[in-house]
Amino acid sequence: MAEQQIPRPRNPEDDWKVWLVVNPSTWLIPILALVLLIALTVHSFILTSAKYNFLAG
Amino acid sequence: MAEQHSLSGLTPEQAKEFHEQWKITYTTFAGLAAVAHILVLVWKPWF
Q1: DSSP character for B46?
Q2: Rounded distance between C-alpha atoms, residue B34 and residue B5, angstroms
Q3: Helix/strand/coil for A4
Q4: Which of B6, B19, B40 sits opposite A15 (nearest CB)?
Q5: d(CA A40, CA A53)
Q6: What is the least distance, in Å, from the CA of A23 to any CA of chain B?
Q7: Which positions in chain B touch A24 (Cβ < 8 Å)?
Q8: Is the pTM of this model over 0.90?
Q9: What torsion, rounded to 10 degrees, do the Cα atoms B32, B35, B41, B46 define?
Q10: Which of A19, A26, A36, A43 to mutate to test the interface with B (most CBs of B within 10 A)?
């Protein structure tokens, strides 16, 4: 059987099609939780630097 | 013709509708992050 040719997406106009694959009612909260985790990780790393420790007086 | 189901189960209309809100929220997040980085740059330049 001839291999089905799937047209390559054109972005950003086809960006919305990601939600035809990833269901936001399942994955929105995990995605936001990961963004928060990354932000907390980056901020805790920055706290370890003397120059940018925004908590030290 | 058999009804087309997407992998996620969303219809194209639902996907487009959600994506509009996603773009708004992401643009707001990126804007706030840009402002925060500018404030840090003013406070202590890192280059």
Answers
A1: -
A2: 39
A3: coil
A4: B19
A5: 14
A6: 5
A7: 8, 10, 18, 22
A8: no
A9: 40
A10: A19
The one-letter code for the residue type at A6 is I
- CB atoms B10 and A51 under 8 Å: no
Each residue's pLDDT tens digit, A1-57: 678 888 899 999 999 999 999 999 999 999 999 999 999 999 999 999 999 999 986
Give tens-digit pLDDT for B2-43.
677 899 999 999 999 999 999 999 999 999 999 999 999 999
Please name the residues in contact with B1: beta carbons below 8 A apart, sequence gap of 6 or more: none
List of chain B residues whose C-beta atoms are within 8 Å of the C-beta of residue A23: 8-10
